[in-house]
Amino acid sequence: MTKINLRPMLDADEIMSILATVPDPEVPVLTLNDLGIIRDVNIDESAGTITITLTPTYMGCPATEAIQKMVSDALTDAGYPKPILKEQLIPAWTTEWIKPEALKKLEEYGIAPPGSDTDNEPKRCPNCGSDDYQLVSQFGSTACKSLYRCLQCKEPFEYFKCH
Ligand SMILES: [Zn+2]
């Protein structure tokens, strides 16, 4: 018996474009593709299996399981078989893997994008563009962000820490 909802061909490009629509559970304005965490899509035509390798953004990040489930759901919703999910811890993910266009999206969303290792602080307030701000807390809504307050517009904002 053939399943009518199953695609006859497994296409890596199409799989990538499906994964490119899956949002990051912690920063929904970014997709998994924006974050650069999808390391590999491997298709075994004869076995009919898809293996997806992901690198978690932060070690022990509670979002990892949620991300795996979202990837699995996105593919099965599109008629693909349930993928085999692999975690690749080395090399470790760094904020440098975030796609350049995604840094802009972060700022538009109100989160200051990551700086560099040597200059690990926001460039400017994402609300008004002022560079007159102060650190409120090393930890924001999640451990990967810290909380700042702009001294110009008085708005608090989060900074996606370089890592
Ligand atoms: Zn401001």
Description:
The structure is a single chain. The chain has two domains: 12-87, GMP Synthetase, Chain A, domain 3, CATH 3.30.300; 98-160, no CATH class. The longest helix is centred in the middle third of the chain and has 15 residues, at 63-77. The chain starts with 11 loop residues before the first helix and ends with a strand. It is built from four helices and seven strands, in the order ααββαβαββββ. The protein is of the alpha/beta class. A hairpin with a 7-residue loop joins β5 and β6. Strands 4-7-6-5 form a four-stranded mixed sheet. A three-stranded mixed sheet has the order 1-2-3. The structure holds zinc ion. Residues 125, 127-128, 130, 150, 152-153, 155 line the site of zinc ion.
Model regions low in confidence, pLDDT < 50 over at least 5 residues: none
Rg on CA atoms, Å = 18 Å
Number of strands: 7
Quaternary form: single chain
The secondary-structure class comes to alpha/beta
CATH architecture of the largest domain: 2-Layer Sandwich
Domain module count: 2
Q: Give the neighbour order of strands across the main sheet.
A: 4-7-6-5
CATH class call of the largest domain: Alpha Beta
Give the end-to-end Cα distance, rounded to a whole number of Å: 50 Å
> If helices are DSSP runs of H or I spanning 4 or more residues, what is the number of helices?
4
CATH topology of the largest domain: GMP Synthetase, Chain A, domain 3
